[in-house]
Amino acid sequence: MNAPQLPDAGPDPDDGKEPGAFRTIGEVAKTLGIRQHVLRYWEEQFPTLRPLTRAGGRRYYRPEDVALITEIHRLLHKEGFTIKGARQALRGKKGAAVAVLPSPEPAPHASDEQSAAPLVNYLQSIRDRLAAALEE
């Protein structure tokens, strides 16, 4: 049995339809080798995946939906992302791979003899640096 092909631009199904044609959930599932219930679950987990629905709840996937499903499949099954990590990757967030920032000076230690203020200031500076790194 041949493994499904998942090129970067989306699958190239050999179903006789035009590349811009809408596809049913069964056609997409068969092309990508994914079960239909998995596609329905991904619709719940990835807000940007919204196929058109017609009377009776029948789903029709646009070419951009199929490309998104292909990317989700790649992230989850080829790259090993979790659902949450894949959502972040699709949003373009770098939060999944934040580098550890070096400490400019050793962390102060709070004890009974000294105030906790230096430790609090130090922790706030780390929090600010991490927030700035996540925004990049």
Automatic annotation (TrEMBL):
Keywords: DNA-binding. Residues 24-92 form the HTH merR-type domain. SMART domains: HTH_MERR (SM00422). It holds the Pfam family MerR_1. InterPro entries: DNA-bd_dom_put_sf, MerR-type_HTH_dom, MerR_fam. GO terms for molecular function: DNA binding; DNA-binding transcription factor activity. This is DNA-binding transcriptional MerR regulator. The lineage of its organism: Bacteria, Pseudomonadati, Pseudomonadota, Alphaproteobacteria, Sphingomonadales.
